[in-house]
Amino acid sequence: MKDMVQTQKIGRSSSVAAQASKARVLIAVMLFVTVVINYMDRANLSIAMPAIADEMDLSKAQQGLLLSAFGWTYAALQIPGGWLVDRIPPRVLYPACLILWSIATAFMGVIGGFVALIALRLLVGVFEAPAYPINNRVATAWYPERERATVIGFYTSGQFIGLALLTPFLSWLQSVLSWHWVFIVTGTVGAVWGAVWYTFYREPRDSRANDAEIDLIREGGGLVDLVDEQQPEHPAVTRTDVATVLGRRKLWGIYLGQFCLTSTLWFFLTWFPTYLVEYRGMDYIKSGFLASLPFVAALVGVLFSGVFSDFLLRKGVSLGVARKGPIIVGLLLTVAMIGANFTDSTAMVIVFLSIAFFGNGLASITWSLVSALAPERLLGLTGGMFNFIGNLSSIATPIVIGLLVTDDSFAPGFVYMTVVTAVGIASYVFLVGRVERVRS
């Protein structure tokens, strides 16, 4: 009898899948493009930094401070950003954020001066703060559980594709014109995309998705009614809500793990181009090309990770193994970064760093754990806390490396990154435990 019921469920699921429209494919593409722009506007400063430092005669400590400015406001506003995500529909909130951070970015190319650049970079951090909680909310509303890691892997790959393809272009643009145009061009692109998002994005029930696709998403664990633009009021966040997102060991496991994971990302987003230019003696064009190679490796890692994780889930592997396995293996590979301290060959340095960033990409489906662990009612708040603690690395990494390295040696920076990665591995192994949704 049980086999008959199971066969009927499988048959119904297959029938629904066959009849379902593919509106969620467009949503995945829109998330992907948004992430490309998001990370382009985070990394443009690192590309321009050697030229800015030379023009303004900045010390390593000053460079670290400027590179960290984005992180101060970005991390601090993750909780308020998550609160906004639970209250303002993505169709409205995302384009508003896109346009505002793009304007601040463009002005970085217009207004010169060290203090002005810090102030504008702080503003970019303010308006980018809700971005990844919005991505997570959109993914949770639009995709069944068995597709979610693939989608998260796909749109997360946007950060690496954008950086891999755009780093050489922006380096060329800087060499042909000046560093000012790096910010003007990237800011203009973001503002245009904000208008595109508002024009085309809709919630599942308000979109072109047919009833079969809505059923497919809902029956697969997608929260299709999560965002209701007609709902006039949302309950205030209570102390109990905050205690829930701060008082669960499982959640702390992913918070700390994310800090360690994103520390590697922020090394590549801040100090990596400077490392190639100043410590490896490369020019802007050559450094732009070589800087893109680890991002290509990370792209391969993140695309494989999402697809492989969902494949394991469909084959009956537990949610914990399917989600945590690629993350832990990826962090283990990231330790290869320390190899850069033991070679004088630039080619071998790029190999070690490409292996490390492949691992970082492999581990970058961590948002799938937020979707799986966060209380349903507190998705935005949990995502905000996750991104807040994770992106404290955007402050720590540029400043700590700037203080550790000397004019002659970058080795202490790689030691710091290796130790942080080891802490991340321990966090996922010992704190997260069984993957199941936390009750609020």
From TrEMBL:
Organism (species): Rhodococcus wratislaviensis (Tsukamurella wratislaviensis)
Secretion signal, residue range per the UniProt entry: none
Localization: Cell membrane
Name of protein: D-galactonate transporter
Pfam families xrefs: MFS_1 (PF07690)
GO molecular function list: transmembrane transporter activity
One cellular component term from this protein's GO annotations in UniProt: plasma membrane
Lineage: Bacteria, Bacillati, Actinomycetota, Actinomycetes, Mycobacteriales
Transmembrane segments: 21-40, 92-120, 179-200, 251-269, 289-313, 325-343, 349-374, 386-405, 411-431
Coiled coil: none
